[in-house]
Amino acid sequence: MTTLGARRRGRPARLGWRARLLRDRSLVLMTLPAVLLLLVFNYVPLFGVVTAFQEYDPLSGVSGSPWVSFYQFERLFADPLFWGAVRNTLYLSFVQLVLFFPVPIALALLLNSVLSERVRNFIQSVVYLPHFFSWVLAITIFQQMLGGAGVLNQFLRGNDLATWDVMTNPDTFALLVTAQVVWKEAGWGIIVFLAALAAINTDLYEAAAADGAGRWRRLWHITLPGLRGVIVLMLVLRLGNALTVGFEQFLIQRYAVGHDTADVLDTFSFYFGIATNDYSYGAAAGLFKSVISLLLIWGANKLAHAFGEDGLYRR
Fold it and tell me: Exposed, middle or buried, 89 (CB in 10 Å: 0-12/13-18/19+)?
C-alpha cells in the first residue's frame, strides 16, 4: 500500500536494502576487493593502537604486556626530538601545500587548452610516467643531476664556476623534496582535474565566446568556478594528510642532510619505535599523528561547508 500510494502521488517508491542490494549486486561485487583490502590493511590494524598505552613486549603479546596508561605520551611530549619532527613535518607540509598543490591544477588547465588530441595524449603519458617510479629511482635521478658528481656540478666545474651543493644542503632541503614531489606526482595529480574539466558544459564556452569573452575571462568565469568544488575537495584531503609528507622519500635522504632536518613524524615513529624495539613509543607517536590528522580533515571540511562547498560530504 505504501509503494502504491507513493506511485499515485508521483513520488518514486523507496526500495528496501535487500532490493537495492539485488539491483546493485554487480557494483557491490566490483567494490568488494577494495573493501576487503581496507578491512585487512586499515581497520584490522587499528586494534594495535592499544599498544600505545602499554609497555609492549612482543614475546608477551598485547594481552600479556603491562598497562601503563598515558606514560608513553608523557615521554613523547617531553622529548625535544619529537617536537623537532613535528616542526619539520608542519614546515615541509606547508611548503608542499603552497608550491605543489597548484601545479596539477595549472597542468590540467594547460593540457585542456591543447587542441591536438595526439599531442595532449603524448604529454599526459610523459607527465604520468614518473608516478610509477619508486622513490629510490626518483632520488637517484635527482642525485645524478644535482649531486656532488652530478651533471650540474660537472658543468660548473668545467666552466671554472663554484659548485652548488643541493642534495646535502639542509637549507634547501624543503625546496628539494618539494621539487621531487612535483616531478614525480604532479602528472598523476591532474587526473581528477582533467575529469572535472571534461564535465564542464562546452555550451558555456561557446555562449561566452559569442558574447565577446576572451580566453582569460572564460577561464576566470567558467573554468575556475567549474573546478572550485573539486579543488576544495582535494584541498580538504590534502589538509587531512598534512602530517603524511612521505616516509620513503625522507628515509632515503635522512643521512644526507641529518635527522634534524629530515626527520618527520613517520621517520620518527620508525627510528624511535621499531628500529629501537620501543614499539609502544612508536605507536604513541603514530596515534598522535592520526588524531591530529583527523582533527585537520574535520576542520577543513567544516571550513568548506562554511564557504558553501560540499567538501567530503553534503550537509
Answer: buried
Q: Are residues 14 and 249 in contact, defined by beta-carbon separation less than 8 angstroms?
A: no
Reading the chain (315 residues) residue by residue, the pLDDT tens digits are 445 554 555 556 677 778 888 888 888 899 999 999 999 988 888 888 888 898 888 888 888 889 888 898 999 999 999 999 999 999 998 998 888 889 998 888 888 887 677 888 888 888 888 999 899 999 999 988 888 788 888 888 888 888 888 888 888 888 999 999 999 988 888 888 888 888 888 788 778 888 787 778 888 888 888 888 888 888 887 877 778 887 888 888 888 888 888 889 888 888 888 888 888 998 899 899 888 888 888 887 787 777 777 666 666
What is the rounded CA–CA span in Å between residue 180 and residue 143? 11
